[in-house]
Amino acid sequence: MNPQALSSERLYQTFQFLHSEKGIIDQIVSSAAIQRIPKGTIMLFEGDECRHFGLLFSGVVRIYKVSETGKEITLYRVSGGECCVLIAFCIMYQKGFPAHAVVEEDVEVVIIPSDLLREWVQRYDGWRKYIFNLLSKRFSQVLGTVEEVAFRRMDIRIAEMLVGLAQNNGSNIIITHQDIALELGTSREVVSRILKYFENEDYLFLKRKEIVIHDLDALTKKSRD
Fold it and tell me: For 6, which of 57, 94, 157, 185 is 20 to 30 Å away at the CA?
């Protein structure tokens, strides 16, 4: 996590919305530095004060909520070229972070002091537009998650998740039942029961920490029920 210097060229290449805001680029170069944060690091716990803001060059950060019973549900993920709008919101309104943030893939991030973020929102139209557009995008994602949890059957949601993973990574999916449960906001027991049903229907084959898709077409049809 040792900080490293950064260049304006790399900032321009990664964060397209900064092209019209040279003043912001100059301040980042003079006031911020790159940090590398390893996978598994909890960046923020719910209720934490947000003292810094980050622009991700690379990696993935998962933003999630935890219930009183310990169940988790993913709200959204932040990837390279993006930032976490919840942190921006908390800095602007001086609120505690309303979720948890964990590094899923090693992160390279530009750490920016919170007072600079507040200054940019007041001074730069391009930055202000970017933040509010991102807020709209994340709100839509979270609303979609709420609708899924409230109105869609869990077997359909699991089938849809597996179809997406298979399309991106092939028929051999390295994942645990607990991983699926945390992603979808349910219990491991519910996931295991549904996966066993899928196995009995010959949609897939279950192995330790792995799911092998046998019939992607049937699983895709199931995801559209």
Answer: 94
Contact assessment for residue 57 and residue 109, using Cβ atoms and an 8 Å cutoff: yes
Query: 10 Å Cβ neighbour count for 20?
Result: 12
Smallest Cα–Cα separation from 171: which of 215, 201, 202, 207? 215
* pLDDT tens digits for range 42-99: 999 999 999 999 999 999 999 999 888 888 888 999 999 999 989 999 998 999 999 9
Coil, helix or strand at residue 126: helix
Estimate to the nearest angstrom the gap between the alpha carbon of 206 and the chain centroid.
Answer: 27
Which residue's structure tokens are 């449960």? 181
Q: Each residue of 159-185: pLDDT tens digit? A: 999 999 999 989 999 999 999 998 898
Where is 189: in which H helix or E strand? helix 188-200
Q: Which two tokens stand for residue 19?
A: 């092209």
Q: Rounded to the nearest 5 degrees, what angle is found at the Cα of 173, between the Cα atoms of 154 and 71?
A: 40
Q: What is the set of domains in the chain, with CATH numbers? A: 8-150 (2.60.120.10), 152-223 (1.10.10.10)
Handedness of CA 36, 131, 121, 11 (dihedral sign): positive
Kindly state the tokens that stand for 87: 């942190």
Chain length of the chain:
225
CA–CA distance, 148 with 142 (Å, rounded to integer): 10
DSSP 8-class letter at 49: B
Cα separation, 192 vs 198, in Å, equals 10
Candidates 174, 173, 211; CA nearest to 192 is 211
